[in-house]
Amino acid sequence: MSEEIKKDTGPKMFSTRDLTLAASLMSVGFKLAGINYQIEGMHPKQIGYFYFLETEMLSEGVGKYLKEELLVEPRKFANNIRTLKAEVVGTYKNPNN
Predict the structure, then answer these.
(1) DSSP letter for each residue of 15-62
(2) Neighbours of 15 (CB within 10 A)
(3) Distances (CA, A) of 61 to 13, 20, 66
(4) Whether the Cβ atoms of residue 31 and residue 53 lie closer than 8 Å to each other
(5) Sheet harboring 45-53: ordered strands across?
(6) Chain-centre distance of CA 65, in angstroms?
(7) pTM of the model
(8) For the segment 1-58, what is each residue's pLDDT rounded down to a tens digit?
(9) 36 forms bridges with which residues in the sheet?
(10) CA distance 53 to 92
(11) 53 forms bridges with which residues in the sheet?
């Protein structure tokens, strides 16, 4: 799992490539700020990097997720997984949108 806080002049952003973490955060109400992708591996495969605005509440949510204490509604989680996967593929196929 690779998470990082982007440091620049704008708002701090939390980034993760962990699809289930991103879907979990969305399922409990955190807004996705954006998605970037990279091509990785021997067989080119697009990997999504999901961005959220870094807040104290988000950090708490990530901590609960890592400690397996974050509770999410299953259907919302499943829908968010599908949506995020589709967004990564869409961003890869049409990066100008």
Answers:
(1) EE--HHHHHHHHHTTPPEEEEEEEEETTTTEEEEEEEEE--HHHHHHH
(2) 18
(3) 15, 13, 9
(4) yes
(5) 3-6, 13-16, 45-53, 32-40
(6) 13
(7) 0.80
(8) 555 555 556 789 999 999 999 999 999 999 999 998 887 777 777 788 999 999 999 9
(9) 49
(10) 22
(11) 13
